[in-house]
Design brief:
alpha/beta, N-(1-d-carboxylethyl)-l-norvaline Dehydrogenase, domain 2, 51% helix, 10% strand, binds 1,4-dihydronicotinamide adenine dinucleotide
Length: 384
Amino acid sequence: MKTVVIGAGTMGSGIAQIAASHGSGVVLVDQHEEVLKRSKDKLEKILSRLIEKGRIDENTKREIQGNIEYQTNMDGISDADLVIEAIVENLEIKQHLFREVESKVNENCIIASNTSSLSITSLAAVLSSPERCIGLHFFNPAPLMKLVEIIPALHTSNDIVSQSIAIIESWGKLAVSVKDTPGFIVNRVARPFYSESLRIYEEGICDKEGIDWAMKHVANFRMGPFELMDFIGHDVNYAVTESMYNSYHQEPRYKPSFTQQRLVEAGWLGRKSGKGFYNYTDGDLTSNKPDEQLAETVAHRVVLMLINEAADAAYYRIASIQDIDLAMTKGVNYPKGLLQWADDMGLEKVVHGLDSLFDHYHEERYRCSPLLRNMLKEGKSFYA
Ligand code: NAI
């Protein structure tokens, strides 16, 4: 098999490593020579570390490295089976690249994008054979994260979908299928983790240390939302929220927060700039255990909003119930699938909790998904 990866930044380098580690020949293309050199050096370090840990031997390292060719052009890709682009997140630039790629590959080659926010259909539409186009959305760091979202464009043929799933699974990944909608599964369903926590903080119900504590110790998430936003970077996290808000035609649930906007304006982007919600220049993060009752309330409210978002994704058939839960547990390490969580909590409690928030605020943001209400009426559960 021959895979071409275009863009040798964070994602492209990771995807090239995965393909090469599973025996595929890889051509890794970037417009900048120095980016390719950096990518090659980084792979050398990663593989040496894997040897130290006893995960691979010298031979395997050499094999993986030998599988990758580094190029600043797209010469010699006419026999490629799969091209995955991971270049800058810009529709016109990606469309331009797709046209160029199509002129260089044979008619059986799959042309895929790793975009996190653009419509796959709008990329497919520029191809002469749009049925060969698909979204393959990896997560960062790609070699470590199990999940890949598989996103067919309106044009994509079933055969290309099955071939893509087979390739992704042969690379040891877990494929979930999702409709071509903004944020796909993970970036959509995860929004309330940040937005509802910011809202609770902005209302002064609980401080950020307390919310982080509640989400880790009551709801069992690996990181608190404020720590996680600092880790992701407020520029990136804010841009995703804003793009979701606009792509969903100003859906109130995705409304960006002024608190986060100000952090971006201040250049307090989180860990990478030494300061965000927390200060990273003077040692450990402060941890603050809130009153037990308050911690329960905070964790319950954020989890309710996450469940509601997951239920709405299922209601609009963006993905199957199982795939929505798998995406959140394998893609972003949630402690439990959200729809499983709804079953465990009991749908009556979920619907009642959301209705109480709506009664209190009278805001669209807190409307309960019709799916939850229908299921409660019919006495159903997600995994009965
Ligand atoms: P990056 O900025 O690290 O890398 C992009 C690379 O593409 C750069 O090295 C640049 O020189 C190269 N490039 C740009 N235009 C090119 C062209 N026409 N031909 C060849 N090379 C070109 O970006 P990153 O973070 O790797 O993201 C790439 C894509 O993956 C974006 O679409 C992004 O939305 C998506 N993505 C990013 C994730 C992340 O966590 N960083 C997660 C999942 C998807």
